[in-house]
Amino acid sequence: MQWLYNRFASNNKSGGYVFLNYGYKDQTAIPLNKEDEPNRYFIQLYQRVVRDIDVENKDIVEVGCGQGAGGVFLLHYKNPRSYIGIDLSDKAIDLCQRNSKFANGQWMQGRADALPIHDSSVDIVVNIESSHCYHSMDKFLCEVKRVLRLNGYMAFADLRHSSKIDELDNSIKASGLHVLHRSDITPQVLDSLTYLSDRRKAHINATYSNIWRRAVRDISAVKGSVTYDGFINGQQKYLCYLLQKRNAE
Fold first, then answer.
1. Methyltransferase type domain spans which residues (predicted)?
2. Is residue 206 part of a domain?
3. Is-contact 96 66, C-beta < 8 A?
4. DSSP state of 67
5. Domain that holds residue 126
6. Cβ–Cβ contacts within 10 Å for residue 228, how many?
7. Positive or negative: CA dihedral 207, 107, 197, 76
8. 192 belongs to a structural domain
9. Is residue 210 over pLDDT 90?
10. Residue 127 and residue 140: Cα distance in Å, rounded?
11. Does residue 237 carry a pLDDT above 70?
12. The pTM is what?
Protein backbone atom coordinates (compact mmCIF):
# COMPACT_ATOMS: atom_id res chain seq x y z
CA MET A 1 0.00 0.00 0.00
CA GLN A 2 2.98 2.35 0.41
CA TRP A 3 3.19 2.94 -3.34
CA LEU A 4 -0.49 3.88 -3.48
CA TYR A 5 -0.31 6.41 -0.66
CA ASN A 6 2.87 7.81 -2.21
CA ARG A 7 0.77 8.29 -5.33
CA PHE A 8 -1.91 10.10 -3.33
CA ALA A 9 0.71 12.45 -1.90
CA SER A 10 2.21 13.07 -5.33
CA ASN A 11 -1.25 13.97 -6.64
CA ASN A 12 -1.85 16.52 -3.88
CA LYS A 13 -2.01 19.56 -6.14
CA SER A 14 -2.58 21.98 -3.27
CA GLY A 15 0.73 21.04 -1.67
CA GLY A 16 -0.94 21.46 1.73
CA TYR A 17 -2.27 19.24 4.47
CA VAL A 18 -5.06 16.94 3.26
CA PHE A 19 -7.50 14.65 5.09
CA LEU A 20 -7.89 11.11 3.74
CA ASN A 21 -10.40 9.66 6.23
CA TYR A 22 -14.09 8.85 5.68
CA GLY A 23 -15.40 11.47 8.08
CA TYR A 24 -18.04 11.41 10.82
CA LYS A 25 -21.43 13.13 10.53
CA ASP A 26 -23.75 13.53 13.49
CA GLN A 27 -25.76 16.24 15.23
CA THR A 28 -22.90 17.43 17.45
CA ALA A 29 -21.26 20.32 15.61
CA ILE A 30 -17.94 21.30 17.15
CA PRO A 31 -16.87 24.96 16.74
CA LEU A 32 -14.34 25.42 13.93
CA ASN A 33 -12.55 28.30 12.31
CA LYS A 34 -14.08 29.39 9.02
CA GLU A 35 -11.20 28.05 6.96
CA ASP A 36 -11.69 24.58 8.49
CA GLU A 37 -15.41 24.29 7.67
CA PRO A 38 -14.86 22.48 4.33
CA ASN A 39 -13.14 19.70 6.31
CA ARG A 40 -15.73 19.54 9.09
CA TYR A 41 -16.66 15.86 8.80
CA PHE A 42 -13.04 14.71 8.54
CA ILE A 43 -12.22 16.76 11.63
CA GLN A 44 -15.25 15.42 13.46
CA LEU A 45 -13.91 11.88 13.08
CA TYR A 46 -10.77 12.95 14.92
CA GLN A 47 -12.91 14.71 17.51
CA ARG A 48 -15.00 11.57 18.01
CA VAL A 49 -11.93 9.39 18.49
CA VAL A 50 -10.28 11.62 21.14
CA ARG A 51 -13.38 13.12 22.74
CA ASP A 52 -13.19 11.10 25.98
CA ILE A 53 -9.58 11.95 26.84
CA ASP A 54 -7.80 15.15 27.79
CA VAL A 55 -5.23 15.87 25.08
CA GLU A 56 -3.97 19.21 26.40
CA ASN A 57 -0.30 19.17 27.48
CA LYS A 58 0.04 15.50 26.53
CA ASP A 59 2.64 13.81 24.33
CA ILE A 60 0.85 12.37 21.29
CA VAL A 61 1.96 10.00 18.55
CA GLU A 62 -0.29 9.46 15.54
CA VAL A 63 0.44 6.25 13.65
CA GLY A 64 -0.76 6.46 10.06
CA CYS A 65 -0.82 10.26 9.93
CA GLY A 66 -1.18 10.40 6.15
CA GLN A 67 -0.73 13.88 4.71
CA GLY A 68 -0.87 15.53 8.11
CA ALA A 69 -4.23 17.28 8.32
CA GLY A 70 -5.37 15.36 11.40
CA GLY A 71 -2.17 16.26 13.19
CA VAL A 72 -2.73 19.93 12.37
CA PHE A 73 -6.22 19.71 13.90
CA LEU A 74 -4.82 18.17 17.09
CA LEU A 75 -2.01 20.72 17.31
CA HIS A 76 -4.21 23.73 16.59
CA TYR A 77 -7.34 22.84 18.58
CA LYS A 78 -6.18 20.44 21.31
CA ASN A 79 -2.90 22.01 22.50
CA PRO A 80 -0.80 18.89 23.12
CA ARG A 81 2.66 19.25 24.63
CA SER A 82 4.07 17.44 21.62
CA TYR A 83 2.83 15.67 18.51
CA ILE A 84 4.69 13.17 16.31
CA GLY A 85 3.04 11.96 13.11
CA ILE A 86 4.34 8.67 11.68
CA ASP A 87 3.51 7.18 8.28
CA LEU A 88 4.99 4.55 5.98
CA SER A 89 4.63 6.84 2.95
CA ASP A 90 7.84 8.81 2.50
CA LYS A 91 6.16 11.23 0.09
CA ALA A 92 3.37 11.97 2.58
CA ILE A 93 5.96 12.64 5.29
CA ASP A 94 7.96 14.88 2.94
CA LEU A 95 4.80 16.90 2.34
CA CYS A 96 4.10 17.17 6.08
CA GLN A 97 7.65 18.26 6.84
CA ARG A 98 7.62 20.93 4.14
CA ASN A 99 4.43 22.43 5.54
CA SER A 100 5.24 22.13 9.25
CA LYS A 101 4.75 25.38 11.17
CA PHE A 102 4.39 23.98 14.70
CA ALA A 103 7.32 24.07 17.11
CA ASN A 104 5.82 21.17 19.08
CA GLY A 105 4.95 19.06 16.02
CA GLN A 106 7.08 16.77 13.88
CA TRP A 107 6.59 14.09 11.26
CA MET A 108 8.71 11.03 10.49
CA GLN A 109 8.59 7.97 8.28
CA GLY A 110 8.18 4.70 10.12
CA ARG A 111 6.45 1.34 10.35
CA ALA A 112 3.53 0.60 12.64
CA ASP A 113 5.18 -2.64 13.76
CA ALA A 114 8.53 -0.95 14.56
CA LEU A 115 7.74 2.54 15.82
CA PRO A 116 10.75 4.91 16.00
CA ILE A 117 9.68 5.98 19.50
CA HIS A 118 11.30 5.39 22.91
CA ASP A 119 9.72 3.04 25.45
CA SER A 120 7.13 4.54 27.82
CA SER A 121 7.42 8.03 26.31
CA VAL A 122 3.90 8.69 24.99
CA ASP A 123 0.63 9.65 26.69
CA ILE A 124 -1.70 9.02 23.73
CA VAL A 125 -1.41 6.99 20.53
CA VAL A 126 -3.91 8.01 17.85
CA ASN A 127 -4.63 5.60 14.99
CA ILE A 128 -7.41 6.37 12.52
CA GLU A 129 -8.34 4.40 9.42
CA SER A 130 -4.90 2.92 8.95
CA SER A 131 -4.59 -0.43 10.74
CA HIS A 132 -6.58 -2.41 8.14
CA CYS A 133 -3.49 -2.05 5.92
CA TYR A 134 -1.03 -3.51 8.46
CA HIS A 135 0.58 -6.91 8.06
CA SER A 136 0.18 -7.69 11.78
CA MET A 137 -2.28 -6.03 14.15
CA ASP A 138 -0.70 -8.01 17.00
CA LYS A 139 2.76 -6.51 16.37
CA PHE A 140 1.30 -3.03 16.08
CA LEU A 141 -0.55 -3.32 19.39
CA CYS A 142 2.61 -4.65 21.02
CA GLU A 143 4.41 -1.52 19.81
CA VAL A 144 1.61 0.70 21.09
CA LYS A 145 1.87 -0.84 24.53
CA ARG A 146 5.66 -0.47 24.47
CA VAL A 147 5.64 3.27 23.73
CA LEU A 148 2.74 4.20 26.03
CA ARG A 149 3.35 5.42 29.54
CA LEU A 150 1.48 3.66 32.33
CA ASN A 151 -2.21 4.71 32.16
CA GLY A 152 -1.66 6.09 28.65
CA TYR A 153 -4.34 5.75 25.97
CA MET A 154 -4.77 4.42 22.47
CA ALA A 155 -7.54 6.27 20.60
CA PHE A 156 -8.35 4.07 17.63
CA ALA A 157 -10.91 3.85 14.81
CA ASP A 158 -10.99 1.78 11.65
CA LEU A 159 -13.07 -0.32 9.30
CA ARG A 160 -13.15 -4.10 9.22
CA HIS A 161 -15.03 -6.73 7.27
CA SER A 162 -17.68 -8.15 9.58
CA SER A 163 -16.00 -11.57 9.46
CA LYS A 164 -12.76 -10.03 10.83
CA ILE A 165 -14.16 -8.17 13.84
CA ASP A 166 -13.73 -11.07 16.27
CA GLU A 167 -10.11 -11.35 15.14
CA LEU A 168 -9.58 -7.65 15.89
CA ASP A 169 -11.19 -7.93 19.32
CA ASN A 170 -9.07 -10.99 20.10
CA SER A 171 -5.90 -9.12 19.12
CA ILE A 172 -6.83 -6.26 21.43
CA LYS A 173 -7.55 -8.67 24.28
CA ALA A 174 -4.23 -10.47 23.75
CA SER A 175 -2.33 -7.17 23.77
CA GLY A 176 -3.15 -6.54 27.41
CA LEU A 177 -4.58 -3.11 26.65
CA HIS A 178 -7.78 -2.45 28.59
CA VAL A 179 -10.91 -1.58 26.59
CA LEU A 180 -12.55 1.52 28.08
CA HIS A 181 -14.99 2.09 25.21
CA ARG A 182 -15.96 0.23 22.04
CA SER A 183 -18.51 1.73 19.65
CA ASP A 184 -19.90 0.89 16.23
CA ILE A 185 -19.89 4.25 14.42
CA THR A 186 -20.79 2.86 10.99
CA PRO A 187 -24.01 4.96 10.68
CA GLN A 188 -22.18 8.25 11.29
CA VAL A 189 -19.33 7.34 8.95
CA LEU A 190 -21.78 6.22 6.26
CA ASP A 191 -23.70 9.50 6.56
CA SER A 192 -20.44 11.37 6.03
CA LEU A 193 -19.50 9.24 3.02
CA THR A 194 -22.92 9.81 1.47
CA TYR A 195 -22.68 13.57 1.99
CA LEU A 196 -19.12 13.80 0.63
CA SER A 197 -19.46 11.34 -2.25
CA ASP A 198 -20.12 13.77 -5.11
CA ARG A 199 -17.32 16.06 -3.95
CA ARG A 200 -14.88 13.17 -3.79
CA LYS A 201 -15.93 11.77 -7.16
CA ALA A 202 -15.33 15.17 -8.75
CA HIS A 203 -11.88 15.36 -7.15
CA ILE A 204 -10.98 11.85 -8.31
CA ASN A 205 -12.14 12.55 -11.88
CA ALA A 206 -10.13 15.79 -11.97
CA THR A 207 -6.98 14.31 -10.45
CA TYR A 208 -6.56 10.70 -11.61
CA SER A 209 -6.42 9.03 -15.01
CA ASN A 210 -8.92 6.35 -16.01
CA ILE A 211 -6.65 3.48 -14.98
CA TRP A 212 -6.53 4.80 -11.39
CA ARG A 213 -10.07 6.01 -10.86
CA ARG A 214 -11.79 2.75 -9.97
CA ALA A 215 -9.21 1.84 -7.32
CA VAL A 216 -9.23 5.34 -5.81
CA ARG A 217 -13.04 5.43 -5.76
CA ASP A 218 -13.11 2.17 -3.82
CA ILE A 219 -10.45 3.30 -1.35
CA SER A 220 -12.34 6.59 -0.92
CA ALA A 221 -15.62 4.65 -0.42
CA VAL A 222 -17.70 6.85 -2.73
CA LYS A 223 -21.26 5.82 -3.62
CA GLY A 224 -21.30 2.69 -5.74
CA SER A 225 -17.90 1.45 -4.59
CA VAL A 226 -17.38 -1.97 -3.04
CA THR A 227 -16.48 -0.40 0.31
CA TYR A 228 -19.48 1.93 0.39
CA ASP A 229 -21.86 -0.89 -0.54
CA GLY A 230 -20.24 -3.02 2.17
CA PHE A 231 -21.26 -0.46 4.79
CA ILE A 232 -24.78 -0.43 3.35
CA ASN A 233 -25.24 -4.22 3.40
CA GLY A 234 -23.48 -4.82 6.71
CA GLN A 235 -20.43 -6.61 5.35
CA GLN A 236 -18.21 -3.76 6.54
CA LYS A 237 -18.25 -2.10 9.97
CA TYR A 238 -16.50 0.98 11.27
CA LEU A 239 -15.47 0.69 14.93
CA CYS A 240 -14.08 3.15 17.47
CA TYR A 241 -12.10 2.09 20.56
CA LEU A 242 -10.51 3.78 23.53
CA LEU A 243 -7.84 1.55 25.08
CA GLN A 244 -5.63 2.08 28.12
CA LYS A 245 -2.30 0.66 29.29
CA ARG A 246 -2.93 -0.33 32.90
CA ASN A 247 0.12 -2.45 33.62
CA ALA A 248 3.78 -2.24 32.71
CA GLU A 249 4.19 -5.83 31.55
1. 61-156
2. no
3. no
4. T
5. 2-19+30-184+229-244
6. 21
7. negative
8. no
9. no
10. 11
11. yes
12. 0.92
Closest by Cα among 162, 190, 177 to 242? 177
Residue 225 has pLDDT above 70, yes or no: yes
Report the alpha-carbon angle 118-101-204, nearest 5: 95
Query: Looking at the domain assignment, is residue 209 inside a domain?
Result: no
Burial class of residue 249 in the structure, from the number of CB atoms within 10 Å of its CB (0-12 exposed, 13-18 middle, 19+ buried)? exposed
The region that residue 79 occupies, defined by phi over 0 for left and psi between -120 and 50 for alpha, beta otherwise, is: left
d(CA 115, CA 146): 9
Beta bridge partners of 3: none
Residue-wise pLDDT tens digits, 44-67: 999 999 999 999 999 999 999 998
Task: Give the residue-averaged pLDDT of 141-145.
Answer: 99
To the nearest 5 percent, what fractions of the chain are helix, strand and coil?
Answer: 45, 20, 30
Please give the tally of structural domains in the chain. 1
The residue among 133, 118, 9 whose CA lies nearest residue 61 is 118
Q: Considering the chain, what is the average pLDDT of its residues?
A: 91
pLDDT in tens, 69-97: 999 999 999 999 999 999 998 888 998 99
What residue spans of 67-185 are helical by DSSP H? 69-78, 90-99, 137-147, 165-175
Q: Do strands 82-87 and 105-109 pair parallel, antiparallel, or not at all (unpaired)?
A: parallel
- Would the pLDDT of 13 be above 60? no
122-128: strand order across its sheet:
105-109, 82-87, 59-63, 122-128, 148-161, 236-244, 178-184
